[in-house]
Design brief:
The complex is a heterodimer of chains A (137) and B (285).
Chain A lengths: L1 E12 L7 E12 L4 H28 L17 H13 L4 H12 L9 H11 L7
Antiparallel strand pairs in A: 1-2
Helix pairs in contact in A: 2-4
Chain B lengths: L3 H4 L5 E2 H10 L1 H9 L7 E2 H21 L6 H18 L3 E2 L6 H17 L6 E11 L13 E11 L2 E10 L7 H4 L1 H14 L4 E8 L5 E7 L3 H19 L18 H10 L2 E5 L2 E5 L2
Helix pairs in contact in B: 2-3, 4-5, 4-6, 5-6
Classes of the chains: A alpha+beta (137), B alpha/beta (285).
Chain lengths: 137, 285
């Protein structure tokens, strides 16, 4: 008996937040009869379709449902993701801004201690500013 | 500033994770942090260290508030914390010649020893200070996953700051250990990126002798050592991606490892991967 691990993942943008995405993934471990390659391939295809459709249908359900009362209450604005912060530090590096200068700007402009205390919105605004899309407030 | 538990909400590196992979056992890392297997027991040293650490936090908070610490009061607090810890931790594995009462007595003696050696001219600046900083290599390239940590305490004497980490140990430390240890590198790197300065780092080690002894080991780190640490993280990330788990067969840590059973059967559980039409299929061994 063969064992197959079939996974499907999908990333969708977070509404009203630049440089951000939410990932959804599902993995299914299934046993497949050890027969000819064609039937194995067919069984894999069938399993993959099942996994893919399950993710898509959960996404549709989630988008159509209002937030439930059991949802975790938001503890302040959502923090910037690691990807967003890496983009910010890489951009700073390209523009010859040292990390300590970047930290100083963050403290002065956003009132937070460090890069990983920035909210998504603050990080997004800083990225816009560094890209010349927006002037400092 | 966020707390350590808030920083833990994002994918991160920590000294304990890096040290576990590099210096303890990469297979233990895989079991605990990737496969997320439950541990079959908790090492007594881990439980003891947690209670000891909580007690020291209280001692430093008391000092920071400008009050003196009474050894009887601190020893009684340790006793309470230890009793709570053994209720909290599942299946603590004691050494053959030990029980909870012996350890409680030893802990109280160690706390008393530490209080006797406190330097009254030393000012406590901060306690349990969390940090999260990007890992940036020598060429200015940053990694996606940050390094996080929590500094036990920062003290100041004659205008000079020192980061202090509390340890308990079964034996005196070898002379070179503080200078080779990964923890000062990680914590000074974090402090440097947060505060723009690299002070000294001191391990305050209480040795579990019959009459406990306090040893203080001071060290520091250079920019080159920080760069070396970041290069190590890069290699470790590649090894984790490749599921490079290796048992550390004669390790000093095996006795206290809660994955001994999983480790013994690990080489029999491995699956092999074959590829059919571009899709990975794992064949059970």
């Amino acid at each position: 008996m063969l064992k197959a691990i079939v996974s499907y993942s999908k990333k969708i943008p977070v509404p009203d937040s630049e440089f951000s995405s939410q990932g959804f993934s599902l993995s299914l471990e299934a046993e497949i009869p050890d027969r000819d390659p064609a039937s194995i391939q067919a069984r894999l295809h069938e399993t993959f379709e099942l996994v893919k459709n399950s993710v898509e249908s959960e996404l549709v359900k989630q988008n159509s449902q209002p937030p439930t009362s059991s949802a975790k209450p938001a503890a302040g604005p959502e923090k910037a993701s690691n990807k967003q912060i890496k983009y910010l530090t890489d951009l700073a590096q390209q523009k010859n801004i040292t990390l300590s200068d970047l930290n100083a700007t963050i403290r002065k402009q956003c009132g937070v201690t460090g890069l990983y205390d920035l909210s998504r919105k603050q990080c997004s605004d800083l990225l816009d500013e560094m890209n010349g899309k927006r002037k400092a407030a | 500033m966020s707390t350590l538990s808030e920083y833990r909400d994002r994918p991160h590196w920590s000294f304990s994770a890096l040290n576990q992979f590099m210096n303890i056992c990469s297979l233990q890392y895989g079991f605990q942090r990737v496969m997320k297997l439950p541990q079959t027991f908790t090492s007594v040293n881990l439980s003891f260290g947690s209670a000891f650490h909580r007690c020291l936090e209280w001692i430093q908070l008391t000092r920071k508030d400008g009050q003196s610490v009474k050894r009887e009061e601190a020893a009684a607090l340790f006793q309470t914390l230890w009793l709570r810890q053994i209720k909290e931790d599942r299946l603590i594995k004691f050494d053959d010649d030990q029980n909870a009462d012996d350890i409680s007595r030893q802990g109280r003696d160690m706390i008393a020893c530490l209080i006797d050696k406190l330097d009254p001219t030393e000012e406590v600046i901060s306690i349990s200070e969390a940090f999260a900083v990007p890992l940036v290599d020598a060429w200015g390239e940053s990694l996606e996953t940050p390094m996080i940590g929590e500094i036990d305490t920062v003290v100041q004497k004659a205008g000079l700051k020192t980061l202090v980490d509390w340890k308990t140990s079964g034996a005196r430390w070898p002379k070179q250990k503080p200078h080779l240890d990964l923890q000062p590198t990680v914590f000074l790197y974090g402090y440097q990126h947060t505060h723009g300065e690299t002070p000294d780092f001191r391990f305050d080690v209480v040795v579990k002798n019959k009459t406990p002894v306090l040893e203080s080991h001071i060290t520091t780190r250079t920019a080159d050592q920080f760069n070396r640490m970041v290069e190590c993280v890069k290699r470790v990330e590649q090894m984790i991606q490749a599921e490079h788990w290796m048992p550390s067969e004669q390790s000093f840590y095996c006795g206290g490892c809660g994955y001994q059973e999983a480790c013994r059967g690990w080489h029999r559980q491995r699956a092999r991967t074959i590829s059919i039409g571009g899709t990975d299929v794992r064949k059970a061994a």
